[in-house]
């Protein structure tokens, strides 16, 4: 099979916002307790944060981590998680039918972010709470001092303001599963009022309104139109969420699911443009894709466990073990975010540790990288700069989720210094190697500075505590610069990063 890829120096899509390589943490299962926070663990520091997890998170170089939810936030009182731990109340979490100790709260999370080399992206509760509570949380976090809430933060040990710049106005408020679910009109109104209040406090804040929980919601896409009609000029982003499964066991259909992802982004982008035109607004709203991942390996069991919960504290929930097949779809999803960087400015893999996550841990034991950790890390490091338009000429196939799916999925990034073009490539074909020919008009291609690949003969291969490196990046072979073009072969079912010095 032959694949011809073409780029041109002058055909740029957009500057890629570094924050598309962000993540999400919710008070769910062992994401927080046993994930990032485990006092008594051999690697735990004085704050109870697992050092082995911190090291793996730092290597991802995440610009943002969204917290504390998720479904959890819609019935969460943020004041339960501040002050001395011994004084914090134990609550029942109705989202996941578990018991919440509140040992981890806002100040603790911000402290963890500083150690992890990332910034907090905090969510306010617009389910059971509203305007007053949201503004109090903002004042607590960001006001220097001299007011009730800011002085309380100082009393709790944080003399300097946390300076949280990105805020989510609730979570998945279109979902009937949400505590205090709202209609589009109801949610749009409160998002507008809270947004106006927060912008009055600080007009430089970036606010995220809730979009659709997924593209199959019965209210999609009218939800986005109605919500933005109410709050367009008070927010900066509309959120989108999606998760992919492969219950049918159809490999080609599974790895094609990034194509509907692209349509999802395209459709909501059109709605944003429609509302902007309707309001005659000069304000721009972008997309925050703040929950995305593969999620199905353990989902049916999780539904049983949650339904029969006896209010346990931090039980193992949603702990999908990812395989090599998942690497390919995650790689295609990241390529989609790069190609849609004109629309998508924030994206958060959901979640970060243990719960449908690239990092796994054992309580009291090791932490390791799941298979999907690797394409995320390499894109986070080398996928920053300017996205280039990519034309791909390759055979296609038809499956249930999409027609004319190209066997090669590709994105291209020009580094900030202009000296390297990085290609992220996925050969979707299950059996055939792909002869690759990349034309780079406007560039003088000098050499392949790096070729890294992720491949494995077994689509079901996983990384475990005992075998943490079964699926990992390796040095690629057979790609070189010849006569100004990049040429070589991509093996079947493989992910590639090819960096070209220009």
> CATH architecture of the largest domain, please?
Alpha-Beta Barrel
In helices, the fraction of residues equals 25-40%
Which residues form runs of ≥5 with pLDDT under 50? none
Shape: globular
Q: Separation of termini?
A: 27 Å
Could you name the CATH class of the largest domain?
A: Alpha Beta
Biggest beta-sheet profile: 8 strands, parallel, barrel
Integer tally of domains: 2
Radius of gyration: 23 Å
**How many helical stretches?**
11
Provide the β-strand percentage band.
25-35%
Q: Could you state the oligomeric state of the chains shown? A: single chain
Instruction: Write down the CATH topology of the largest domain.
Output: TIM Barrel
Describe this structure in words.
- This protein is 26% helix and 26% strand.
- 50% of the residues are buried.
- The longest helix is centred in the middle third of the chain and has 21 residues, at 258-278.
- Helix 6 (222-231) runs parallel beside helix 8 and helix 10 packs parallel to helix 11.
- It starts with a strand and ends with a strand.
- By secondary structure, the protein is of the alpha/beta class.
- It is globular.
- It has 2 domains: 2-9 and 388-501, Golgi alpha-mannosidase II (Immunoglobulin-like, Sandwich), CATH 2.60.40.1180; 17-382, TIM Barrel (Alpha-Beta Barrel).
- An 8-stranded parallel beta barrel has the order 3-4-7-8-9-10-11-12, surrounded by 6 helices. A 7-stranded antiparallel sheet has the order 2-15-19-20-26-22-23, covered by helices on one side.
- The protein is built from 11 helices and 26 strands.
- The protein has helices at 51-60, 106-116, 131-142, 148-155, 184-201, 222-231, 251-255, 258-278, 299-307, 324-339, 373-382, and strands at residues 2-8, 12-15, 22-24, 64-67, 91-93, 98-100, 119-124, 166-169, 206-209, 237-244, 286-294, 344-350, 359-361, 367-369, 386-388, 391-393, 396-397, 405-406, 408-414, 420-427, 434-441, 447-455, 474-475, 480-482, 485-490, 494-501.
